[in-house]
Specification:
about 30% helix, alpha/beta, about 260 residues, 7 helices, disordered N terminus, 7-stranded mixed beta sheet
Length: about 260
């Protein structure tokens, strides 16, 4: 996972991040239109060292119990994937047991505390998985390297979401897909206003290792040249939580 607060992050994109997420936006809310006058969500954090050891420890403890609820979404997300796959922000490897034998996965995690258990989790997978140090905003791979990129509860915490999505687009092969499970800004004006304010306060990002709850991630994908092929809304945890709603689906490059 990556940080949005300047201190890069740790952690696996998971629902617990759902209970811990944010995006430092300025407040400029007018009626039902939250975007007027606001900078793009989740693009205001510097890229740093990607260390957040305290949050990493909390996340590692909570991610297991959350699997009872989130596991089915992970399975839907990665269970049928095949080919060369890049997973960004793999955390402690909670997705790994859901990959099938046709997947060859390169998994990036910038937080050392989470990278070690992720390496151990490769033994529970039918897929071939290599765990590496790395972050979504600066991918050390050639253009057109992967058939699929997996973003699972991570794009809320990258320092510059547009930059990360641009990097993801760069390393995808023509015809490749970005599959995602992410929490996003609510369509309800009242809740969205709260999410923006909570991000703006820095309380949530500080608690949650850089996670932001008001990201407009689908719009970010479209800015990066992706077309949303499929998308459905899901709630993880209580529907009223500031980290709901979540969206899961698949996107392809418009000219891919």
């Amino acid at each position: 996972m990556e940080d949005l607060t300047g201190q890069p992050v740790s952690g696996d994109p998971d629902p617990q991040r759902s209970l811990i997420a944010v995006s430092g936006l300025s407040l400029g809310w007018h009626g039902a239109s939250l975007s007027g006058g606001l900078p793009p969500a989740c693009n205001n954090g510097p890229i740093g060292s990607f260390r957040h050891p305290l949050f990493a420890r909390v996340y590692a403890r909570l991610s297991g119990p959350m699997e009872q609820e989130v596991g089915r979404y992970r399975q839907d997300l990665v269970g049928e994937l095949s080919g060369e796959i890049l997973e960004v922000g793999c955390g402690n490897g909670m997705n790994f047991s859901h990959y099938g034998p046709e997947a060859s996965v390169t998994a990036l995690e910038p937080e050392p505390y989470l990278r070690d258990p992720a390496q151990e989790a490769t033994g529970d997978s039918a897929a071939r998985i290599e765990v590496l140090d790395g972050n979504a905003a600066s991918l050390d791979f050639a253009d057109d390297s992967f058939d699929v990129v997996v973003a699972c509860l991570v794009l809320c915490s990258v320092g510059e979401q547009d930059r990360a999505l641009g990097e993801i687009a760069r390393v995808l092969r023509p015809g490749g897909s970005l599959v995602f499970l992410e929490h996003v800004r609510s369509q309800s004006p009242g809740k969205a206003k709260f999410q923006v304010a909570f991000d703006r306060s820095r309380v949530w990002p500080t608690m949650a290792g850089g996670c932001h709850c008001s990201c407009q991630t689908i719009e970010g994908m479209e800015r990066a040249g992706f077309e949303i092929v499929s998308k459905r809304d899901v709630d993880i945890g209580p529907g009223w939580s500031h980290t709901n709603p979540h969206v899961t689906g698949r996107a392809t490059l418009v000219n891919g």
